[in-house]
């Protein structure tokens, strides 16, 4: 069946599902969703963004975002990249084996450092948990379900943090990790437009998703976004991708249309 799936053209009604944009979605899910949207824009594959309060429970893996293409449902960037590749669209075909290995290593770095830092901030930093995470995460649900679901999720994330050795970290240590990750990305990018020179790859989509979301999300303090702002080539990179792949696409993609409540990079 995978051969017949591959042969089918990309449907007009392909959809990406995420949580409610204004009042519910959290930093980490927003970043992951934006990374997938950027990847699909770079592949020139149209996608409609559909926001649902219960998106997390609709996903087959419980992970977000997920895309619904034809009769296939695929969640998270890695599997989506593979799925799109099976349909004949790839951003990294031009890379040699060494570059592909390097790209994979940097993607792991982003997931291990930035995504984990976002989850830590959301669910392990007490002030953020109380003021932002619990109210947003539980917002679609009535009391006491809103609290129950939030605590359940918090327990799940904190258990994961314990397993990977992050539970005992201080916020300062986590921000230091973010800085190290940004430093490595900044070094690799240098003065190139993209990480592998002229053409974007899925690494560019992933980095953009996380950095743009960090730069434009209002948190308790600006400490997280300040770490990214220290690297002017990374902020310029975000601006470039925003302009190239999202400006003027706002009718089709709600990725960046959520600016009303956020700071834009282009100010």
From TrEMBL:
Recorded hits in SUPFAM superfamilies, A to Z, give: GST C-terminal domain-like
Domain spans labelled Metaxin glutathione S-transferase: 179-241
Chain ranges of the Mitochondrial outer membrane transport complex Sam37/metaxin N-terminal domain = 33-153
Domain of life the protein comes from? Eukaryota
One Gene Ontology cellular component term attached to this UniProt record is:
SAM complex
Q: Which InterPro entries match?
A: Glutathione-S-Trfase_C_sf (IPR036282), Glutathione_S-Trfase (IPR040079), Metaxin_GST (IPR033468), Mito_Protein_Transport_Metaxin (IPR050931), Sam37/metaxin_N (IPR019564)
Where does the record place it? Answer: Mitochondrion outer membrane
Entry's Gene Ontology BP terms? mitochondrion organization; protein transport
Report the Pfam families cross-referenced here: GST_C_6, Tom37
Sorted keywords for this record are: Acetylation, Membrane, Mitochondrion, Mitochondrion outer membrane, Protein transport, Transport
Question: Where is it predominantly found?
Answer: mitochondrion
Q: Which family does it belong to?
A: Belongs to the metaxin family.
Q: Which purpose does this protein serve, as stated in its record?
A: Involved in transport of proteins into the mitochondrion.
How is the quaternary structure described?
Interacts with MTX1/metaxin-1. Associates with the mitochondrial contact site and cristae organizing system (MICOS) complex, composed of at least MICOS10/MIC10, CHCHD3/MIC19, CHCHD6/MIC25, APOOL/MIC27, IMMT/MIC60, APOO/MIC23/MIC26 and QIL1/MIC13. This complex was also known under the names MINOS or MitOS complex. The MICOS complex associates with mitochondrial outer membrane proteins SAMM50, MTX1 and MTX2 (together described as components of the mitochondrial outer membrane sorting assembly machinery (SAM) complex) and DNAJC11, mitochondrial inner membrane protein TMEM11 and with HSPA9.
This protein's name: Metaxin-2
Source organism of the structure: Vireo altiloquus (Black-whiskered vireo)
Taxonomic lineage per UniProt? Eukaryota, Metazoa, Chordata, Craniata, Vertebrata
